[in-house]
Structures are given as C-alpha cells and as structure tokens.
Design a protein that fits this description.
Helix content is 0%, strand content 32%. The protein is mainly beta. The relative contact order is 0.18.
Length: 78
C-alpha cells in the first residue's frame, strides 16, 4: 500500500507528503522514564510530539523498515 503519510503500525504520525521524488530525513526520537515522550522529526522539523508508551520497545531478531516502500533507505542509526 503506497501512502504519502509517515506511519508506524498504521498510526499516522505525519500527513506530510514524502512521495515527491526528493530525499527526506525522518527521525523518531523516543524518551522513556519520567520525561517519556516520542518526537517525530521530518526534514529537521518536529511534526508530532506524543506520549511514548504506545511505541513498542525494539526487541527480537528482526527489525523491519520501509515495508511496502519504493526507494532506498540510507544511514540507519539505532
């Protein structure tokens, strides 16, 4: 399914159009603990700040990124 939104498990994080034949920087910064929050950053601009409790911890053997995406992912950092 092709979408122009930034999503996480079908939850829309940003309605910014990213299907425009340009490179984009997308970051998800998750803080846990007393200052728990998640911040979605697209091209250097914060587009969403929300509670981080609905974002699962990274665990398991596999991490899938860019599923159903046409294009390339470059410079992944965890």
């Amino acid at each position: 399914m092709e979408t122009d939104d930034v999503t996480l498990d079908d939850e829309v994080l940003s309605e910014q159009n990213l299907i425009d034949n340009n490179l984009h920087h997308v970051a998800l910064n998750v803080l846990r603990g007393s200052d728990a929050q998640a911040n979605v950053i697209v091209d250097g601009t914060s587009v969403l700040t929300t509670a981080s409790d609905w974002i699962p911890a990274l665990k398991g053997e596999y991490l899938y990124m860019g599923c159903d995406m046409q294009g390339a992912i470059d410079e992944v950092r965890l």
